[in-house]
Design goal:
By secondary structure, this protein is of the alpha/beta class. The protein is built from 20 helices and 21 strands. 39% of the residues lie in helices and 20% in strands.
Length: 633
């Protein structure tokens, strides 16, 4: 047997907090050393935080990371653990996103990321240079002329337990990534340091990907992911350890910490000898490609005497573990709620300017869900009194109903959060008169203007409250209504952080139904009993003014996500919604496309939003569309 204990660490970093980031990693490194971990895997860009975006262009931002990397090495010098962690370095005027191998107080080598994603939410090709096969450089530490250099490039590391290969995040996601040649060159344990943002369904994709790569390349593969939120991106943490296609460990997500498991690398070596296809592929590669250099680390010894062969919890190698599995519904809802509450919490805490969270609670679906997500964070941050962290305001006008007021009041009471009723009706009257004076004699306000005045008054009052109380004003709008401009600039579109602006309305309702089933809140029942509408004029119903939300969400997905033309969109919708009829659906498609393209100018004025899917309306993250455009195409 050749037993190795692998630790997967999820660290909640902040961009630019070099010392604090490394301190967090050192705490976990100490804990892993105490538990006799052999190889400790940390996230991508651990030292500087991820994503650093254009900060990487400041040379001091890069150089300072080396100081902290050396501090990590020095502090862990007495440990018998091999550490792999992410860092940015500068070499010959270029910036590289690297995995650093640290052991025995030394930085043994740096392996640059080769696949630089520049799509969706990623912009790495803008700022980093890529590593490449055969790269063999020597990095001179910054401001340390004449000091010992550090190998930088395509390399492997031979320790007393076996041969280690390292890579960074996106390298795993390409079938033509560096893992293939490094496995063929002898790497038995390959670790991937990652900062992969949460998206709906991504956990299953990662699990399958790790298993596929470990099986294809007949290696033991360790994957560790960053946890926390940074500028709207949410990282769910966790990680996987998979040996030649067989799962060995799945780390806990949505919390900082580490998980570990023991594997026998002799099993990986044996399976390679048994797999004739892999052997033939390796032989073909070895006869046609230059070898990947292997650095022999002979003067560093790990301590593995206390490790035991990995036995299943139920002591049977043939029976299932019996671990209960979550339903698809529970997995989707809990992951989303965990992600969004983490997004609120990290934005609230890392900015260090907020003392309270504020929500304009209308008694409708969107603001209720936003409150429930904020309360989920507050339960973790202040378990003894979560309600003390949140203040809600119900701001009625003559159009507000008793039903929504009661729904808001009951929900706030059930959660134990602050609740205040502050009417804006008198101010609404004054603002209408002021607007008429500005327009001049004989000009009447439009109905839309009257609606928008109410929304803007509510936003203005929330901002005034936030200014004085250092409050985090949460914007509560959903993606469906934002997509078609069913929102007010300077009004309900405003806030400091948009919590559910990347959730379609149908998903908002789905989450509320799930929370109602789980917690039996009376308030949710009162909220959903009334048709959704903004109550800015009498008897206002959103689906009557727009279209059924299930149709709207289908239009959004197929047009904005799948890039169907309007005619293709219609042909897809007719069999989906036969009860609505082709004529009505044709009108829905025409209305959606017109409203969608006309509303782009609104999106760019909306606040920072939490990103939870591959498609959203944050212009800097996913769907990048010109503001000024025509739809003749």
């Amino acid at each position: 047997m050749r037993l190795v204990k692998v630790g997967l660490a999820s660290v909640n970093t902040t961009v630019g907090a070099f010392g604090a980031n490394v301190d967090r990693a050192l705490n976990l490194a100490k804990a892993m050393s105490d538990e006799h971990v052999t190889v400790a895997v940390f996230p991508e860009q651990l030292v500087g935080g991820y994503p650093s975006e254009d900060l990487i262009q400041w040379h001091t931002f890069v150089e300072r990371q080396w100081v902290e990397l050396e501090r990590f090495a020095k502090t862990t010098a007495a440990s018998a653990v091999v550490h792999v962690l992410g860092v940015a370095v500068s070499h010959k005027g270029l910036r590289y996103n690297c995995a650093a191998v640290v052991a025995g107080g030394r930085i043994l080598g740096l392996v640059p990321k080769e696949k630089l994603p520049t799509y969706g939410i990623f912009y790495e090709g803008r700022t980093f240079s890529r590593g490449y096969p055969g790269m063999n450089e020597q990095l001179e530490p910054p401001n340390r002329h004449g000091a010992d250099t550090v190998p930088l490039g395509d390399q492997l590391f031979a320790f007393d337990f076996g041969t280690l290969g390292v890579e960074v995040c996106e390298d795993l996601w390409s079938a033509d990534g560096p893992m293939r040649r490094r496995a063929y060159a002898g790497a038995e344990l390959i670790v991937n340091v990652s900062s992969s943002p949460f998206r709906i369904g991504v956990e299953g994709t990662r699990r399958e990907l790790v298993a596929t790569r470990a099986s294809d390349h007949q290696c033991t593969l360790a994957y560790a992911n960053q946890v926390g939120s940074q500028d709207g991106l949410i990282f769910d943490g966790g990680g996987f350890l998979n040996q030649n296609g067989r799962p060995a460990l799945e780390a806990v997500r949505f919390r900082e910490g580490f998980s570990s498991a023991v594997v026998d690398l002799e099993r990986t070596a044996r399976l390679r000898t048994e797999n004739t296809t892999w052997r033939m592929d390796q032989e073909a590669w070895a006869t046609s490609q230059p070898p990947v250099p292997v650095r022999v680390i002979g003067d560093f010894k790990t301590k593995r005497e206390t490790l035991h062969y990995p036995a299943p919890p139920n002591r049977s190698f043939f029976l299932p573990s019996g671990t209960p599995q979550r339903s698809a519904r529970e997995a989707l809802c809990e992951d989303l709620l965990d992600a969004l509450s983490l997004g609120i919490g990290d934005y609230f805490e890392k900015n260090r300017v907020f003392t309270k969270i504020g929500i304009a609670l209308s008694g409708g679906r969107d603001s209720t869900l936003t409150l429930l997500i904020a309360h989920r964070y507050a339960q973790r941050a202040r378990p003894d009194d979560p309600g003390s962290l949140i203040q809600t305001f119900y701001m009625p006008t003559r159009f507000s109903s008793d039903a929504t007021r009661r729904a808001a009041e009951v929900t706030a009471r059930e959660l134990g959060v602050g609740f205040a009723v502050v009417s804006i009706d008198d101010a609404f009257e004054r603002e209408m008169e002021a607007a008429k004076q500005m327009l001049g004699p004989g000009v009447e306000l439009t109905g839309i203007t009257k609606q928008n005045i109410q929304a803007r008054l509510r936003a203005q009052r929330m901002w005034n409250w936030a200014n004085t109380s250092n409050g985090l004003f949460l914007q509560t709008g959903n993606m469906s209504e934002k997509a078609v401009g069913y929102t007010t600039i300077g009004g309900d579109l405003m806030g400091a952080l948009a919590v559910i602006s990347n959730l379609p309305k149908t998903l908002v309702v789905y989450l509320l139904e799930y929370l109602q089933e789980k917690h039996r809140y009376e308030g949710i029942g009162l909220v959903t009993a009334k048709p959704a509408g903004p109550e800015l004029q009498p008897n206002q119903v959103g689906e009557e003014e727009l279209m059924p939300f299930v149709v709207l969400d289908a239009c959004f997905y197929l047009f904005a996500g799948e890039k169907l033309s309007p005619s293709e969109l219609l042909s897809a919708l007719v069999p989906m919604f036969p009860e609505r009829g082709a004529a009505a659906l044709k009108g829905d498609v025409e209305k959606f496309v017109r409203l969608f393209t006309q509303s782009i100018y609104k999106w760019v004025q909306s606040p920072l939003s939490l990103h939870v899917g591959n498609l959203d309306l944050d212009r800097e993250r996913a769907l990048q569309l010109p503001v000024v455009t025509k739809i003749e195409w």
